[in-house]
From TrEMBL, chains A, B:
The keyword Hydrolase applies. One of its GO terms (molecular function) is hydrolase activity. It comes from the Bacteria. Signal peptide: none annotated. Keywords: Hydrolase. Pfam families: SASA. This is Sialate O-acetylesterase domain-containing protein. The keyword Amino-acid biosynthesis does not apply. Residues 7-203 form the Sialate O-acetylesterase domain.
Length: 255, 255
């Protein structure tokens, strides 16, 4: 169930474009993440306002790779600064930890996360910006590429503890999320529900410790909106470029 | 015919990843460009060395949008600087002009291109770096989104004149390139041949005024290489992530 909404933008080459998933492009096979349903829920609560997404995720990265001297951090700051030329930063969504779910790495995770959160806020000049952290899925530690993530629950405890102890930081649970066949990546349906949890934390300024009773319904509502002319034009052009439909059909929108 | 080569990298989040097309992500439906076959031809001539691609293209952009004060230029510089932390910039490939192929915009194109080339070289501290410009396709000015590009040939004349008059600048012809059904974008097969022309200009330090007699054969050679273990692992994982093959098959590569 794709989400198209002319009020949801994504950063490309330092500029805003209408969102089309995948938002992330760190890997060729990047799929659906939690940001799109977060953004759609935000739009439902902020009618006729626009929201922009700044993709910075890096598949398979450890928290050490997000150290403030490392490229991932510097690049994320650089991208955010391009975005902030024309917009206000309203939240940072963090979902990471699989690569730190072994070898007692959880023992340093709180401290490293603290440095990271403070570095992001300081570098971007947004000391009060909400920082929302997502728990890792219960399916970890079992199969495929997730097999080695045996300490995911200990990372989750650190994420929750961090949110409980720090101003404008919130935790959302990773309970009842399901994985792709690779055993490590959250599947698209679960990512949609996770995005709704992120928005709940953002909106209520509180931790989401349990899955929401109505998250499936909220997701369905997010994906079922009626398309505007601009959205229909966008979708028709996209489909045409992928080989569906006729040129005449598309050109009708560009008269 | 996809190109996979562990010696061809692309910039993602400021870091190098093995290339997988599409390299560009300015639009969700971005496809094959000239850079991959350029890179493969480069690898054929520079055995066991690595080449990296820095994607900066922006679909539909006019040369004014690449002005040195504009976001596209600033973002491209920012990306290139991340790349140059770990590599040497050996060339800049330019293919643009469709959006300037009407309303006598060609009259200012040479001057604007000159400012742009000098700005890129100055900002990146590479005054001698080859700047290779590609001609626009003969199919323009006729149908679909290309219909309005009636002055594409006048832009081509300016591109060629610019290359003839400026040090370390080379022109490659856009003759005998074919478009997608949209009437504006070069199709994948033609992009492959265009990349070979770009490499010919780079390698011979001269303009490529005619299609190469053997460009189809060179493209076939580029795409027919035997895969290394690393490439097979990459492809198998990519296919699995897209739903093909079994987890067991993939995990064999990660033992």
């Amino acid at each position: 169930m794709p989400i198209y909404n002319e009020n949801i933008l994504m950063l490309r080459n330092g500029r805003w474009q209408m969102m089309s998933e995948p938002i992330h492009f760190d890997r060729s096979v990047a799929g659906v993440g939690p940001a799109a349903s977060f953004a759609q829920a935000w739009c439902n609560a902020n009618e006729s306002e626009q929201i922009g997404l700044i993709p910075c995720a890096e598949g398979g990265s450890s928290i050490d790779e997000w150290n403030a001297e490392e490229t991932l951090f510097c690049h994320a700051i650089s991208e955010a600064k391009f975005a902030m030329k024309t917009s206000e930063l309203i939240a940072i969504l963090w979902h990471q930890g699989e690569s730190d779910s072994h070898s007692e790495k959880y023992k340093d995770y709180y401290r490293k996360l603290d440095v990271l959160v403070n570095s992001f806020r300081k570098e971007l000049g947004v000391t009060e910006v909400p920082f929302i952290v997502g728990g890792l899925g219960d399916y970890l530690g079992k199969s495929g590429f997730g097999r080695s993530c045996v300490e995911y629950d200990l990372i989750n405890q650190e994420l929750l503890r961090y949110a409980e102890n720090n101003r404008n930081c919130y935790f959302v649970t990773g309970e009842r999320l399901y994985s792709n066949p690779d055993g490590i990546h959250i599947n698209a349906e679960s990512q949609r529900r996770l995005g709704i949890r992120y928005f709940e934390a953002y909106q209520t300024k509180s931790n989401v410790n349990k899955p929401l009773d109505n998250e499936v319904e909220i997701v369905n509502l997010c994906c079922e909106k009626e398309y505007t002319i601009a959205e229909k034009r966008y979708i028709t052009l996209e489909q045409f470029t992928l080989g569906e439909g006729s040129l005449e059909e598309v050109m009708k929108f560009f008269k």
